[in-house]
UniProtKB/TrEMBL annotation:
<dbReference type="InterPro" id="IPR007484">
    <property type="entry name" value="Peptidase_M28"/>
</dbReference>
<dbReference type="Pfam" id="PF04389">
    <property type="entry name" value="Peptidase_M28"/>
</dbReference>
<keyword id="KW-0732">Signal</keyword>
<protein>
    <submittedName>
        <fullName>M28 family peptidase</fullName>
    </submittedName>
</protein>
<feature type="signal peptide">
    <location>
        <begin position="1"/>
        <end position="30"/>
    </location>
</feature>
<dbReference type="InterPro" id="IPR045175">
    <property type="entry name" value="M28_fam"/>
</dbReference>
<feature type="domain" description="Peptidase M28">
    <location>
        <begin position="273"/>
        <end position="480"/>
    </location>
</feature>
<dbReference type="GO" id="GO:0008235">
    <property type="term" value="F:metalloexopeptidase activity"/>
</dbReference>
<dbReference type="GO" id="GO:0006508">
    <property type="term" value="P:proteolysis"/>
</dbReference>
Length: 503
């Protein structure tokens, strides 16, 4: 089934905005043409403007900007209108600031029903279907006390139930989203063993560690799977259900029977990238682009935490979205020799989908993109700390670009850089979790600016009031100064010979 009902009103609004957001105001002031040796226009990056924009974009009124919803489209229109007000050129499709693309979403249908011994289990309260699937079950349940019991009898074609077992190894202490990672790792390890036995379905009862996390983790299962049309749908597999302890108590009796009707829906939703351009000063080099990258979406509305159900995503990633507006303002006032291309990606939180789409369908010639300077979360933690991912091997793909970023920091912003998160052995795998990755895969020099994780990451506590505005301005200046150097260096930065993406 294909449906647009939740996003149609905002799609109409965005369509109207496509018609109106086609050119900057006629009254935009003329740019000051500066020589290549001129310093960056730091005065254009103002804390008051950053604060104002941040509190608007991360406000409750935009409801967390979840990809594939009206709220994400409204946020995109807000970004495009601010870019227009700043006098930035539209650089999206058809002379607009927008590049729409389709998201395919697979969900567990509301018609799904699960019963144990004739007693219904409430979907998303007592039981979670961990992946969308079409299946019918009506069979006795075999309870396994341990995985060793899989060797004692044939389980082919049987419905098997167990208690969820702790994963080995456990997620690293203090790792972000620890409970989610615990459950995901446990499910992956345990179901892999059972699938090899040819079981027909798997029912896992939460252990004491997983039980308190079911509301948060279960929301992600309820949300389903998002993809681009070019991505292969998930391969059919056996149903896996995760149950609360109270709901799963009857399974251990050895006399349980499950009856289930598992259905799934397929929807196509629009998502959108916002693209603006500040032309360069050099008649020839302005055809090349320094691409500043961030994402405007976040996690939307979820189960309340301490009474707050809106994941505002102020640091993740409204900070970079407003930083890019400030960079555009600075470039407009004092252009670099090359042009600045600003791309606000949609659907990053659903799997880097907007940046993947743009890397595959750029609105400028791909060869004109000299470098990508991506930012994600640049407004928290100690005032003088920051990180530059992609600056050390094996993640580094352009030594020349790294040198420019390090020199800009040394000359202007003087952050103490934490390089440990660039280590491929770091448990967070942070390098692979932001929008520079599709560009690296496309063979373009790219870096990732960040001030790293904090306890409010992916919670409703990621609010604009918690952002260090002075640090946000300083990080914005660092990204801008790096792009300024890339823009004004006669020879393009290149990809290092032999560079390849490794984990």
């Amino acid at each position: 089934m294909f449906s647009f009902p939740q996003v149609l009103p905002a799609l109409l609004l965005a369509s109207a905005a496509v018609l109106s957001c086609t050119r900057p105001p006629a009254s935009s002031s003329a740019a000051v043409i500066a020589p290549a040796t001129a310093p960056p226009a730091f005065a254009a990056i103002r804390e008051d403007e950053l604060r104002k924009d941040l509190f608007e974009l991360a406000s409750d009124s935009l409801r967390g900007r979840r990809a594939g919803t009206a709220d994400e489209l409204r946020a995109a229109v807000w970004v495009a209108e601010r870019a227009r007000q700043l006098g930035l050129e539209p650089a999206g499709d058809d002379g607009t600031y927008f590049q729409f693309y389709p998201l395919r979403r697979l969900t567990v249908a509301a018609s799904t029903k699960v019963q144990v011994n004739g007693q219904p289990l409430a979907l998303w309260q007592d039981a979670w279907v961990t992946a969308p699937i079409e299946a019918r079950l009506d069979a006795p349940v075999i309870w396994l006390p341990t995985l060793a019991d899989t060797a004692r009898t044939s389980l082919r074609g049987k419905v098997v139930a167990m208690r969820l077992l702790p994963p080995r190894p456990l997620p690293a202490p203090k790792m972000s989203l620890w409970g989610f990672r615990y459950i995901l790792a446990a499910l992956n390890q345990q179901t892999a063993v059972l699938r090899r036995q040819g079981v027909a379905a798997i029912m896992l009862v939460a252990d004491n560690t997983a039980e308190p996390q079911l509301g948060f983790v279960g929301h992600r299962y309820q949300d389903g799977v998002y993809q681009l049309p070019s991505m292969a749908p998930p391969a059919p597999t056996v149903p896996v259900l995760l149950l609360r302890q109270a709901a799963g108590a009857a399974l251990a009796s050895g006399k349980a029977r499950v009856k289930a009707e598992l259905d799934m829906n397929t929807f196509i939703y629009p998502s959108v990238n916002v693209i603006a351009r500040a032309p360069g000063a050099d008649a020839a080099l302005r055809q090349e682009h320094v691409l500043f990258s961030g994402h405007h979406d976040h996690d939307g509305v979820g189960d309340p935490v301490a009474g707050d159900s809106i994941w505002n995503g102020a640091d993740d990633n409204a900070t970079v979205s407003v930083a890019m507006l400030a960079i555009g303002r600075a470039w407009k006032q004092r252009p670099g020799q090359r042009s600045a291309l600003l791309v606000w990606h949609g659907a990053e939180e659903r799997g880097l989908l907007g940046s993947r789409w743009y890397a595959e369908h750029p609105t400028v010639p791909k060869a004109s993109i000299v470098a990508v300077l991506n930012g994600d979360m640049i407004g928290r933690n100690a005032p003088d700390s920051a990180a530059l991912l992609g600056s050390t091997g094996p993640h580094r793909n352009s030594t020349a670009l790294v040198d420019m970023a390090l020199q800009a920091n040394q000359q202007f912003t003087k952050f103490t850089l934490d390089t440990s998160w660039d280590d491929p052995k770091h448990p967070e795998g942070w390098y692979f979790r932001s929008d520079h990755v599709p560009y690296v895969r496309a063979g373009i020099p790219a870096l990732f600016f960040t001030t790293l994780l904090h306890p409010d990451y992916h919670t409703p506590r990621d609010e604009a009031s918690r952002i260090d505005i002075a640090k946000l301005a300083r990080m914005t200046r660092w990204m801008y100064a790096t792009g300024w150097a890339v823009s004004n260096t006669p020879q393009r930065v290149g990809v290092d010979p032999g560079a390849k993406l490794e984990r």
